Design the sequence.
């Protein structure tokens, strides 16, 4: 199987342009009393950056916020998250995010982690098959896509060059299996997660304000 088929590579024509969802996560809109979307994103960013001087403090803050955040974004869902189930600090390092979220933007990492935790609590299998990609990885997929589909124009329906890819920007994930992807398509808007393309059931991005309706999927990546 060629690399482009394994990775399901897609992206955006302008990954640097901020969507309404990006703006919401950078806003001072209150998520829960005293906590804004901007504060949540800051805490997530702190956890995911090289600032590790107080990781347990940041993890504790996120642990306190996450159940309330989940209550707002997913009413009726179990108020448990991976952040709240960590073993005592002398047993293992706190791992507050779902596997596969390394390199993703703070809003996407948090949104997916909450979604995956809810899916698993309902017995639905869900995982990230491909998230953040380096420029070199995406370039290899782009070249493989051209070889597979015969031309850059045809390849763009499935894979984009590094400078246009939301995977390289840390703003896209490919999930599986299909059962989990279907669940996420139906429920993901609670966390702002939306299926982006009709020809790719696996590709999701933060594309709406959490709790609001997702935009209609585009036919494929070439239609961005």
Sequence:
């Amino acid at each position: 199987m060629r690399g482009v088929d394994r990775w399901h590579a897609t992206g955006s024509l302008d990954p640097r342009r901020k969507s309404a969802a990006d703006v919401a996560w950078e806003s001072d809109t209150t998520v829960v009393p005293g906590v804004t979307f901007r504060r949540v994103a800051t805490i997530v960013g702190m956890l995911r950056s090289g600032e590790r001087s107080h990781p347990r403090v940041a993890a504790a803050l996120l642990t306190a916020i996450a159940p309330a955040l989940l209550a707002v974004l997913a009413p009726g869902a179990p108020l448990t998250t991976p952040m709240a189930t960590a073993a005592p600090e002398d047993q293992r390092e706190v791992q507050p995010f779902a596997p596969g979220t390394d390199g993703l933007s703070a809003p996407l990492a948090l949104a997916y982690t909450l979604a995956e935790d809810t899916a698993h609590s309902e017995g639905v299998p869900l995982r990230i098959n491909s998230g953040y990609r380096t420029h070199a990885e995406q370039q290899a997929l782009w070249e493989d896509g051209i070889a597979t589909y015969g031309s850059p124009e045809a390849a763009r329906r499935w894979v984009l060059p590094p400078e246009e890819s939301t995977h390289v920007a840390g703003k896209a994930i490919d999930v599986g299996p299909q059962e989990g992807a279907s669940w996420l398509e139906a429920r993901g808007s609670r966390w702002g997660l939306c299926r982006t393309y009709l020809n790719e059931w696996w590709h999701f991005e933060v594309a709406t304000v959490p709790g609001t309706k997702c935009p209609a999927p585009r036919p494929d990546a070439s239609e961005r």
Q: What stands out?
A: The longest strand covers residues 200-206. The chain has one domain: 3-223. The chain has eight helices and six strands.
